[in-house]
Specification:
Blueprint: E1 2-6, E2 15-17, H1 21-33, H2 42-50, H3 54-62, H4 92-101, H5 104-111, H6 113-116, H7 131-143, H8 146-157, H9 159-203, H10 205-212, E3 216-219, E4 224-228, E5 233-236, E6 242-247, E7 255-257, E8 265-269, H11 280-290, H12 293-304, H13 309-316, H14 320-332, E9 336-341, E10 344-349, H15 351-355, H16 357-366
Parallel strand pairs: 1-5, 2-6, 6-8
Antiparallel strand pairs: 1-4, 3-4, 7-8, 9-10
Helix pairs in contact: 1-9, 4-9, 7-8, 8-9, 9-10, 11-14, 11-16, 13-14
Length: 367
């Protein structure tokens, strides 16, 4: 499973690395609503939440599905502008002006992504035009509570009023807490953007993409960027560009905007080097390997000390070939190591790999 971006014919000058204050505000709101996703930001989230005015906190709850359930594309309006070559604005006000340039249909479809966008990367009617999608949107919004149902009904009935309400909300968030946060993190994001741009110029797109995250790779022959995620999606740059957006508040999320008709972009963590997480395929292999009861029992022995295949066969009353087959599965999953001692090969559980399974799983599903 992965999201791919077809960049056939894309010149390097149409690849841009640009911080986005509006996207980072979306990340900040997500971190405030889901602090468990971002343990490193828990102190910041607690401090910000404790000083929010009750009225502003209530308004944030009203539309929190825009940043809690999904990362709504309303936080990346540059991508929806005609031509596919716009870049994020330098200030929050500039990006809110870009948001005002989107059509009502674009805004509503992006805002209600969690309810009605069945195929995000294909052209389909939206809830403003399709009565059945409108009904389904209200039904799914109601499942999240009366507050979100009312918000969704307002959005479908009077998009301009809700758009004005949203702009005012973002400006109030800027005044309440985000301006200070942005002043602190903007230099880091700008430095990261400069570094990635220089890497792109000197070593090419493959090296630049690899530096974003271990989840991002480039097949130069196929002209395909692949982002390893627990979903399937496709996009193409066509005559437009590719925008890379660094985030200081977003780890472990790596987001790919691949909405039909919008400019593709990748939002990546810019918080410095981190341990390389396994791919989705490798994570799946590890969980499947440990799901078998025989292999679980083998792990009990292998965690205590190194054992040969014959020792394990005797201990478990099984044949050596049967044990070898189970050891092969564990080894392929990267859960055991081998060490030769004279004529014998001993196997041992890789305790560090097993200890990381919980965090690797969380990062994999959140990425």
């Amino acid at each position: 499973m992965s999201v791919t971006i077809d960049i056939t014919g894309l010149p390097l000058e149409r690849v841009s690395v640009v911080p986005s204050p509006l996207a980072e505000l979306g990340m900040a709101l997500h971190a405030l609503s889901e602090p468990g996703h971002h343990p490193e930001l828990r102190g910041w989230a607690t401090a910000v939440s404790s000083r929010l005015e009750p009225c502003l906190a209530d308004r944030l709850c009203e539309a929190d599905f825009l940043w809690r359930t999904t990362f709504s594309d309303v936080f990346a309006p540059f991508a929806g502008l005609p031509g596919g070559r716009a870049l994020p604005g330098a200030t929050l006000a500039e990006e809110l002006d870009q948001l005002d340039e989107l059509t009502d249909e674009q805004f509503v479809n992006a805002a209600l992504e969690f309810t009605c966008q069945l195929r995000y990367d294909l052209q389909e009617p939206g809830p403003l035009d399709d009565p059945e999608l409108r009904r389904r949107s209200l039904e799914l919004a109601a499942a999240r509570g009366a507050v979100q149902e009312r918000f969704t009904r307002r959005l479908l009935t009077d998009p301009p009023a809700v758009r004005a309400w949203f702009r005012h909300l973002m400006l109030d968030c800027d005044e309440a807490f985000f301006a200070d946060t942005w002043a602190r993190i903007q230099p880091q994001l700008a430095a990261d953007a400069r570094h990635k741009t220089e890497l792109l110029r000197r070593k090419g797109l493959g090296e630049a993409l690899a530096s974003l995250s271990g989840a991002v790779s480039l097949d130069e022959e196929a002209g395909l960027v692949t982002v390893d995620k627990l979903l399937v999606g496709r996009a193409a740059t066509g005559d437009g560009g590719l925008v890379l957006v660094p985030t200081s508040l977003g780890w472990p999320h790596v987001m790919v905007l691949h909405r039909y008709g919008w400019q593709p972009s990748i939002t990546y963590p810019a918080s410095g080097p981190r341990p390389q997480a396994p791919s989705v395929e490798q994570l799946t292999l590890r969980l499947e390997a440990l799901a078998h009861p025989v292999r679980m029992r083998l792990c009990r022995h292998l965690a205590r000390a190194p054992h040969t295949t014959s020792e394990l066969a005797d201990a478990h009353g099984m044949s050596a070939p049967e044990i070898s087959r189970h050891l092969t599965v564990l080894k392929k999953a990267g859960l055991i190591t081998d060490c030769r001692r004279g004529r014998y090969v001993q196997h041992q559980l890789d305790l560090s790999a097993v200890a990381r399974l919980g965090s690797d799983f969380i990062e994999g599903v959140l990425r």
